[in-house]
Design brief:
about 25% strand; ECO RV Endonuclease, Chain A; globular; three-stranded antiparallel beta sheet; single chain; 10 strands; alpha+beta
Amino acid sequence: MNLIDLLETKVDWNKVFGVVEDLYNDPGFTSRADNFRVSSSVELALEEFSPLFRVDQIGYDFICEDTDAVGAEITVIGEYKGEAVELKMRKKLFYSPRGKNPHNTQDVKMKNFQGDKKTLQDFQEQKTFNKLIVLDLGGWELNDYKVLVIDDEVARSRYYEKGDGVFAKFQLGDYYKCDIGEINPNRSRSDIPLSAEIDQLTKNWIRNR
């Protein structure tokens, strides 16, 4: 089984995107710092509801074990051995379906220059993952979620510098869009948002020192 097969048949996307819905509707996540917590939570959800292993390394987020992808470069990290997989995501990943380029993606932030002395060329030349997964978190239409898979070489060929980081845009032919069926996100049954749970846990930890 390769990564695409796994994403199409072994992931509970209703649960993954249910977590996405809860996170992006959480009134307590508003700052730039919160963005890291939200993205990390999505990564944890993908690990929980798929066979992927989250390893959170510099340059890649997951290991996909037992891959039979032709030409796959195998990475070993701790007890895990398989393809190195990077995850990126954004709402309204594609341009408007009623516009001129509905199959082209908007900006996807790939790398951050802050605190890093690497140049755009360095990032373009350095291979850190074997496959890139990009999640379209919806936004144009109800429950219009998408999962793209892009080869590392293709992804790096699309890198460009913008502001404080390296971005990429992808067009038809750059990516494979997974068949994940109709998505009906499973929202949380709790009335307490994750941000409130984290705040309370942090306060309890501080008080009980």
